[in-house]
Write a structure and sequence with these properties.
Order of helices and strands of chain B: HHHHHHHHHHH
Radius of gyration of chain B: 20 Å
CATH architecture of the domain at 10-85 and 156-226 in chain A: 3-Layer(aba) Sandwich
Order of helices and strands of chain A: EEEHEHEHHHEHEHEEHEEHEHH
Helix content of chain B: over 70%
Strand content of chain A: 25-35%
CATH class of the domain at 10-85 and 156-226 in chain A: Alpha Beta
Number of helices of chain B: 11
Structural class of chain B: mainly alpha
Structural class of chain A: alpha/beta
Strand order of the largest sheet of chain A: 5-6-7-3-8-9
Oligomer: heterodimer
CATH superfamily of the domain at 10-85 and 156-226 in chain A: P-loop containing nucleotide triphosphate hydrolases
Number of domains of chain B: 1
Largest sheet of chain A: 6 strands, mixed
Chain lengths: 303, 288
C-alpha cells in the first residue's frame, strides 16, 4: 500500500538516543522515524522524557549518546538555513508582550527567505480581528494560535508542537485540532506533537509513539495500537465456589466455550473485555512508575 | 549568499530596533522612568546655588554634567540588563534563537534601542537645562567633539558590560536589587553630583576604577569652561586617561559579553523557560 520510503522521506531519524543527568537516565535508547507529511504524536506521562527528546531533536540540548538526523542534519550542528526549515511552538512563550499581533508576525516574516503572507496567516489562525491588538491582551487560546502562526510563518517543513493545548477549553482545543489537521493535510507540513493526552494523540496523529520511562514502548497508527491492545481480551466470571476469576486470552471465544462446556450451563458473572488503547497506555504508565519509583525524584530535579 | 544573509540580519535588526523605540515612546510608564531622571537632574541643578569650590563655575553645571554621565551609565548598566533578563524570562531570546539570524538581529536592535534611549535622554537633559536653568552647553567645536567621543566611548564602556550582566542575572525581580545598590554607590562616589575632591582619598581611588568617574570627568571637560579644571583632582581633565580607562572597560565588556550572551542563548530551551515561569509563579510574581 505505502510506496517504499526513500531517505528524503525520513524527516526525523533517531537511533538509540540516550540522555543522562548525573546518575539519572532520562532517555534509555530512543528510536524514532518520522516521515514527511505525517502528524506524529509523542505520547507519555509527565517526566517520561518527552520534552528532553524533543529538545534534542530541536537542537536545544546535547544528547549523551546515539545518532540523530533531523532534516538531514545533526541538530547539534544545525545552522541558520536548517533552523529556517523548522518551526517551533512551545508551551511557555509569553514573549513580545507589547508588540501588536500583525506587527510581530510581519517582523518575524522578514527573517525567512520565502515567508507566508502575514495577513493570510492571521486569517488561517483566526486572528484577523486581533491584528492590531497588543500581544499581552490576547486570551490564552489566541496567544497559542499566534504562536502557531509565528511557528509556521517561515514555511517550515517540520513543526514541533509541545503540549499545544494545555489549559485550553474544549472549543479552543477543537479549533486548534482543525488548524493542525489543515496544516498537515493541505500544506504537507510534518508535525511532531508531544502530549500526555491520549485522546488528542488519537484524534490528530497518523502515528503515535508511547514514551514511558525513557523508552519507546509502542509505536504505530492509532488503529494498529488499538488492535494490538485488544489482542489480549480479559474474561471474568464467578467460579462454582463463588470466587471471582479472571483470565487473559487471545481467543476469548474458545475460553468461554470451554467454560460453558465444563459448567454444562450458564456461567454466573461472565464478562469479556477487550482492552482499549487507553487501558494499555495506563497499564504501561503504571508499570513504569512501579519500576522506576526510586529514580523519579532525580529525574524531576534534572528536568 | 553569506552577504545577503548578513544584510537580512541587519534589516531585521534595524526594523526590530525601530519598533522597540516606538514602543518605548508609546509606553508612558517606561518613558516616565527615563524622563524622571531628567526632571531630578533639573530640580537638583535649580536648587544648588554655589560655585564649584575654587572656581567661578556654578555648581549646577557640575551637577548637570555629572547627571548626563549618569544617564548614559544607567542606560547601559541598569536599563539594558533589565531588558535582557526580562526578555530572556519571557522567551523572546529563545524565539530568536529558534529563528534564522535571530540572535544577531536581536543584538543590533538592542544596540539601537540603548543608543537611541541614551542619546535621546542626554539631548533632552542638555537642551532642557540650557533653556530652563541656564545649563551648560559645549563651548565651540572642540567641546562638541569631546561631548561626542566621550558619549560614544562611555556607551561602549557600559553597554557590553550591561549585556554581560543581563546574560548572567537570574530573574527580573532580583536583577534590579542586585544592580541598583552598586550603581547608586558609584553615583555618590564618582564625583558626579559633588566634587570628587571632597571625598576621602581611598573612596576616590576605588571610584577611579569604574567608568562612571571618567565618563563624568570627560563630560565636564566638554561642558564646563576650561577654568573649571582647577577643581579636578589632578588639576586637569586628563582626557587621554579618560579615553584609556573607558576603552579598557569597553574591551573587558566585549570579552565578557560575547561568551556570556552566547552561553545565555545556548542555554535557552522550552523546559528551562517553563521551570523559570513555575518558579516565578511560586515567588508570587504576577504573570505578565
Amino acid at each position: 500500500m505505502t510506496p517504499p520510503r526513500t531517505p528524503a522521506d525520513v524527516v526525523v531519524e533517531a537511533r538509540d538516543v540516550t540522555m543522562a543527568y548525573g546518575d539519572a537516565d532520562v532517555l534509555r535508547g530512543v528510536d524514532l522515524d518520522i516521515h514527511r507529511g505525517e502528524v506524529f504524536a509523542l505520547l507519555g506521562p509527565n517526566g517520561a522524557g518527552k520534552t528532553t527528546t524533543v529538545e534534542i531533536l530541536e537542537g536545544f540540548r546535547r544528547r549523551s549518546g546515539g545518532e540523530v538526523r533531523v532534516l538531514g542534519a545533526d541538530p547539534e550542528r544545525g545552522d541558520d538555513a536548517w533552523r529556517g526549515r523548522i518551526g517551533l511552538v512551545l508551551q511557555s512563550w509569553r514573549d513580545h508582550p507589547r508588540w501588536r499581533v500583525a506587527e510581530l508576525l510581519g517582523h518575524f516574516a522578514t527573517y525567512y527567505p520565502d515567508p507566508r503572507d502575514p495577513a493570510e496567516l492571521l486569517a488561517l489562525v483566526g486572528l484577523t480581528g486581533q491584528a492590531d491588538r497588543q500581544v499581552n491582551r490576547l486570551s490564552g487560546g489566541q496567544r497559542r494560535r499566534l504562536d502557531v502562526a509565528l511557528g509556521i510563518v517561515g514555511r517550515p517543513e517540520l513543526l514541533f508542537l509541545d503540549e499545544p493545548t494545555t489549559g485550553f477549553d474544549p472549543e479552543a482545543r477543537h479549533e486548534f485540532h482543525l488548524l493542525v489537521e489543515r496544516l498537515a493535510r493541505d500544506e504537507g507540513v510534518t508535525v511532531l506533537l508531544t502530549t500526555h493526552d491520549l485522546a488528542e494523540a488519537e484524534r490528530l496523529a497518523d502515528r503515535i509513539a508511547m514514551l514511558v520511562g525513557g523508552r519507546i514502548r509502542a509505536c504505530g497508527t492509532p488503529a494498529e495500537l488499538a488492535r494490538r491492545a485488544a489482542a489480549q481480551a480479559e474474561v471474568r466470571w464467578t467460579a462454582d465456589d463463588g470466587t471471582p476469576r479472571r483470565e487473559r486470552s487471545e481467543d476469548p471465544s474458545r475460553l468461554v466455550w470451554e467454560l460453558h462446556r465444563d459448567a454444562d450451563g450458564p456461567i454466573p458473572g461472565l464478562e469479556v473485555r477487550r482492552p482499549t488503547l487507553e487501558d494499555t497506555y495506563l497499564h504501561m504508565v503504571h508499570r513504569a512508575a512501579d519500576d522506576t519509583d526510586g529514580t523519579e525524584d532525580a529525574k524531576e530535579r534534572a528536568a | 549568499m553569506r552577504g545577503t544573509h548578513m544584510k537580512g540580519c541587519l534589516r531585521a535588526g534595524l526594523q526590530r530596533g525601530g519598533i522597540e523605540l516606538r514602543q518605548l515612546l508609546r509606553n508612558p510608564k517606561e518613558l516616565s522612568g527615563h524622563l524622571s531622571n531628567v526632571a531630578v537632574a533639573l530640580a537638583v541643578a535649580a536648587f544648588v546655588g554655589d560655585d564649584v569650590p575654587g572656581t567661578r563655575t556654578p555648581m549646577a553645571h557640575l551637577v548637570l554634567a555629572g547627571f548626563a554621565a549618569y544617564l548614559l551609565f544607567q542606560v547601559g548598566l541598569v536599563t539594558l540588563p533589565q531588558i535582557l533578563v526580562t526578555e530572556r524570562e519571557e522567551g523572546a531570546l529563545l524565539r530568536l534563537r529558534a529563528t534564522p539570524g535571530g540572535i544577531p538581529a536581536y543584538l543590533i536592535a538592542k544596540c539601537l534601542l540603548v543608543v537611541g534611549t541614551a542619546v535621546g535622554t542626554l539631548a533632552l537633559l542638555l537642551l532642557a537645562a540650557a533653556v530652563l536653568v541656564d545649563g551648560p552647553l559645549p563651548h565651540g567645536p572642540g567641546g562638541w567633539l569631546t561631548l561626542l567621543w566621550v558619549t560614544a566611548l562611555g556607551l561602549l564602556a557600559v553597554v557590553p558590560l550591561g549585556a554581560a550582566i543581563g546574560a548572567v542575572l537570574p530573574n527580573p525581580r532580583e536583577a534590579l536589587a542586585l544592580i541598583m545598590l552598586p550603581v547608586m554607590g558609584l553615583l555618590v562616589t564618582s564625583g558626579t553630583v559633588f566634587p570628587l575632591t571632597s571625598l576621602p582619598v581611598p573612596v576616590q581611588q576605588v571610584a577611579s576604577v569604574f567608568p562612571l568617574k571618567w565618563m563624568a570627568q570627560g563630560l565636564r571637560s566638554a561642558l564646563l569652561p576650561d577654568s573649571a579644571r582647577a577643581a579636578e583632582a589632578a588639576g586637569s581633565w586628563e582626557l587621554p586617561l579618560v579615553a584609556a580607562v573607558l576603552t579598557a572597560w569597553a574591551v573587558l565588556g566585549f570579552l565578557l559579553a560575547v561568551p556570556l550572551l552566547r552561553r545565555a542563548a545556548r542555554r535557552e530551551s522550552g523546559s528551562r523557560l517553563t521551570a523559570r515561569h513555575r518558579k516565578a509563579a511560586q515567588s508570587g510574581a504576577a504573570p505578565s
